[in-house]
């Protein structure tokens, strides 16, 4: 389990704001909402141990992240990044297979089981026909799904996912959100997703964290957080709310709302 | 369109049934390296047999089995074999160093000299030549110059913050320009009779190579140490953040690659001066032919780089025989058009 205690992420020139106390419990899907520049990605990188927080600490199974080797962390936690560097040519299968890296010793080659995991992951993301393609020839959406497939091959207990529905068509947005929610419900993983789509968050997230550009934040059960007034002040955007299948649906109305600083967290 | 459930079931079924092409990685590795090894042996034999005096194959066989004429034995064991093996080692070192630099800088067009190391070595070597010192001092001075340049670039690129590939690259380019000015200065003030030797060194010349064993030993040790890191390098090539989340200790690995690539290049430069293009062209061609898997690429670069330099040196010895060209002229003449062609066709 991943916990953040009194965590303040380090964004230069920004006041500390609210220190975060988050618990990424098994079986729960966390969503992070906030406008551009609110620090969603910085928070995700801090939780992954890739950035040093300004204050507070991140614990993985009770141990501070910085005291554990990257290899130990990688066996428990996978990160899907928003941006990917593909400087060198590699096939789709090779890319999915690097998810097995934390489990293999230096001299070991990938086994049949590793390969089966990678193939199952590619098939799960609808990429089975592209295994031998060069990643640089893929479309943005295909690369996005490949990044999720690589994380799936890594078999993590904790998923940190940065805008997984970027570049995806409607069907694949639903497929990827479905997959992440299955990882929580069926595999008992903790899932933490930075996202822009309030409606996807409303449908799939159990807990929500609203991040404001000034460092303020509030978090709690998704139902309690999805209040139109709070969301309107978060984005500085007027919203119309309706309901479908018992879940709220938010539609922007084109009126700009003056952003209000957040109320204190739960 | 299939439902998620049926697709999931199909995925599990497929995975159990089909091993897929990547399954043969180990056998592909063995096959490719055997092929390259055989080509390397062939090139070495050609390099030994061909020159200003060509030793026919039967005579070569006699010499290698301990017979043959005394003249042939001297020619082969005291001149050709050391030189050809030195060429092989130097080529292998440069190609491997190039492959490592390309991963370190995450730039497929980087070469072993891109960070200014060759300039430092050249200033060291030319300085020793200006002072009229012997070949051992020139080699030692070149090695020292290479290391000074390496440490300088790394220290400056580190600066007050952490270094990035771009910053390292820019620092290297600027430091190299500085060395270039010093080299020109030394060529201008150098006595006329020393200038040809200095120019030959700058172009890369294997006639200095007396003993191949230091270079061959470095190559063997480097292969043994770096080969187990192949998969980590594959992951690092996807970017440092991704590599960290896949369990790679990024900073120590980057330091390690930098030090290894620098030592390999320094050993090569010390053996034969600054030979261009091997470190750039060989990894690039191998990637086009065999893909970018570093577990295959690094040993393949050692073999193919060695082969290419042996052949280039053989050409350098026979084109204007009995005079010899500096081998760097041949590698540049072959390398420049190949490189421009690859660059023209590539996306980078």
Could you walk me through the main structural features you see in this protein, from its secondary elements to its overall organization?
The complex is a heterodimer of chains A (266) and B (348). By secondary structure, chain A is α/β, with parallel strands linked by helices. Chain A folds into 2 domains: 1-76 and 156-228, 3-Layer(aba) Sandwich (Rossmann fold); 90-154, no CATH class. Chain A has 9 helices and 12 strands. Chain A has helices spanning 40-47, 70-74, 92-97, 112-124, 140-153, 170-185, 198-204, 222-225, 228-235, and strands at 2-8, 20-24, 29-33, 55-60, 63-64, 77-80, 158-162, 190-194, 207-211, 217-221, 237-244, 247-256. In chain A, strands 6-7-8-3-9-10 form a 6-stranded mixed β-sheet, sandwiched between helices. In chain A, helix 4 crosses helix 5 (140-153). Chain A is globular. The model of chain A is unreliable at 262-266 (pLDDT under 50). Chain B is mostly helical and 348 residues long. Chain B is globular. Helix content of chain B is 75%, strand content 0%. Chain B has one domain (27-321, 328-345): ABC transporter involved in vitamin B12 uptake, BtuC, CATH 1.10.3470.10. Chain B contains 15 helices and no strands. At the A-B interface, helix 2, strand 6, helix 3 and helix 4 of A face helix 1, helix 10 and helix 11 of B.
Keyphrases for this structure?
A: 266 residues, 2 domains, 6-stranded mixed sheet, 9 helices, disordered C terminus, B: 348 residues, mainly alpha, ABC transporter involved in vitamin B12 uptake, BtuC, 15 helices, disordered N terminus
């Amino acid at each position: 389990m991943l916990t953040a205690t009194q965590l303040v992420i380090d964004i230069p020139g920004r006041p500390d704001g609210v220190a975060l106390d988050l618990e990424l419990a098994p079986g729960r899907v966390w969503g992070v909402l906030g406008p551009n520049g609110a620090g969603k990605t910085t928070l995700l990188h801090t939780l992954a141990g890739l950035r040093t927080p300004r204050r507070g600490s991140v614990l993985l199974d009770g141990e501070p992240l910085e005291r554990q080797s990257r290899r130990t962390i990688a066996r428990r936690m996978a990160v899907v990044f928003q941006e990917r560097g593909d400087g060198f040519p590699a096939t789709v299968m090779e890319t999915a297979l690097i998810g097995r890296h934390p489990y293999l010793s230096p001299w070991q080659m990938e086994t049949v089981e590793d390969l089966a995991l990678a193939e199952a992951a590619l098939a799960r993301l609808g990429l089975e026909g592209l295994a031998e393609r060069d990643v640089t020839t893929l479309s943005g959406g295909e690369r996005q799904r490949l990044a999720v497939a690589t994380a799936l091959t890594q078999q993590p207990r904790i998923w940190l996912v940065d805008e997984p529905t970027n570049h995806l068509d409607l069907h694949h947005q639903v497929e990827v959100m479905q997959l992440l929610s299955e990882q929580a419900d069926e595999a008992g993983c903790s899932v933490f997703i930075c996202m822009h789509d309030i409606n996807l968050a409303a449908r799939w997230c159990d807990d929500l964290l609203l991040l404001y550009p000034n460092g303020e934040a509030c978090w709690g059960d998704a139902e309690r957080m999805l209040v139109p007034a709070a969301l309107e002040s978060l984005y500085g955007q007027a919203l119309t709310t309706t309901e479908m299948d018992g879940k709220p649906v938010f539609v922007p109305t084109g009126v700009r709302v003056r952003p209000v600083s957040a109320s204190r967290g739960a | 369109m299939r439902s998620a459930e049926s697709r999931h079931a199909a995925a599990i079924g497929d995975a159990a049934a089909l091993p897929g092409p990547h399954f043969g990685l180990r056998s592909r590795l063995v096959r490719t390296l055997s092929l390259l090894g055989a080509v390397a042996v062939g090139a070495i034999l050609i390099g030994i047999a061909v020159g200003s005096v060509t030793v026919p194959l039967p005579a070569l066989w006699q010499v290698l089995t301990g017979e043959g004429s005394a003249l042939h034995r001297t020619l082969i064991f005291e001149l050709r074999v050391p030189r050809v093996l030195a060429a092989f080692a130097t080529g292998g070192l440069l190609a491997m160093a190039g492959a490592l630099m390309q991963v370190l800088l995450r730039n497929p067009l980087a070469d072993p000299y891109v960070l200014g190391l060759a300039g430092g070595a050249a200033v060291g070597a030319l300085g020793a030549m200006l002072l009229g010192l012997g070949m051992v001092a020139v080699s030692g001075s070149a090695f020292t110059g290479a290391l000074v340049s390496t440490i300088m670039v790394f220290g400056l690129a580190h600066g007050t913050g952490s270094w990035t590939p771009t910053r390292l690259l820019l620092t290297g380019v600027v430091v190299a320009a500085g060395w270039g000015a010093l080299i020109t200065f030394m060529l201008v003030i150098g006595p006329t009779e020393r200038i040809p030797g200095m120019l030959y060194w700058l172009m890369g010349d294997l006639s200095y190579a007396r003993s191949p064993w230091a270079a061959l030993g470095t190559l063997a040790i480097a292969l043994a140490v770096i080969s187990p890191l192949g998969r980590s390098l594959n992951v690092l090539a996807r970017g440092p953040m991704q590599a960290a989340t896949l369990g790679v200790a990024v900073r120590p690995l980057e330091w390690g690659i930098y030090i290894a690539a620098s030592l390999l290049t320094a050993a090569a430069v010390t053996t034969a001066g600054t030979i261009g293009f091997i470190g750039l062209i060989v990894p690039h061609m191998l990637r086009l032919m065999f893909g970018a898997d570093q577990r295959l690429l690094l040993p393949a670069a050692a073999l193919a780089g060695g082969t290419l330099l042996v052949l280039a040196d053989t050409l350098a010895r026979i084109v204007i025989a009995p005079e010899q060209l500096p081998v760097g002229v041949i590698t540049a003449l072959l390398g420049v058009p190949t490189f421009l062609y690859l660059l023209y066709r590539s996306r980078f």
